[in-house]
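Hi there,

I know you've been waiting on this one. I reran it after we fixed the sequence typo, so this is the corrected version. Both the input and the resulting structure follow.
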Amino acid sequence: MNERNGFSIAGIPVIGLCLVLALGGVGLYVVGGADSSESWLAVVGVFVHALTVLLLKGLFQVAPNKGLVLQLFGKYVGTVRIEGLRWTNPFCTKQGISLRVRNFESNKLKVNDSDGNPIEIAAVVVWQVIDTAEATFCVDNYENFVNIQSESALRQMAQSYPYDSHDNSKPSLRSHGEEINNHLCEEIQTRLGKAGVQVIEARISHLAYAQEIAQAMLQRQQAGAIIAARQRIVEGAVGIVAMALDKLRSQGVVDLDEERKAAMVSNLLVVLCGERATQPIINTGTLHN
């Protein structure tokens, strides 16, 4: 079921018409009461006032960024979005629905990431109703539907990624925020499209390891970071040593045999990979002593 425009007209002219009918009905009462031969005019006045009350029942107000869903004897006949005082068929029932942008923050969910580690995660979702017919008739309570389906999408998304990854080519919940948020927004929109709701933005607001493994995972994270840093240091040091040897050989500075080349490589690696500053030892002897 898709939204369509409902019938309505400006309400001010209808109010003027109702005033005229009300005054006319009073006049008919007066004339009918004054002359017994014209008593039927009083009956007409009753019908005129009843018609006036019926017309007044069709008046309603529409606030900015709000829509009124109209139903005639249970059948959907359209939605009125034109703001101001409006009038429609007085037999129509009216149900207001907000079209304003709304947001909510989900509860902190405890889920397992793709590596099986328990984590806590929560998200903020910004959404808006764009189809009042679907929001009213396709789901029982669209606000509750948004909350439950958003948490379901958040849980599904969190299980698709690891909490952290030292491989930059592999997305993770902690390091690839924009990609994760886009995936979350798509997951929520897929579930809420049938309710006439558009997801404007979805972002993770809370992300942490579960308390029972937080200390252990922190140590694991620190160890992984140390190993990754050491790997980068060794790779850089080997490159520097290779460049130094190539420069010494190409420029003819010194000609080293394999034994002294190995000693030089060992010393350079100690200097480049050590955590503390090295103390140089100056050799004042001969080349071989």
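Quick highlight: The CA atoms of residues 70 and 83 lie 15 Å apart.

Best,
R. S.
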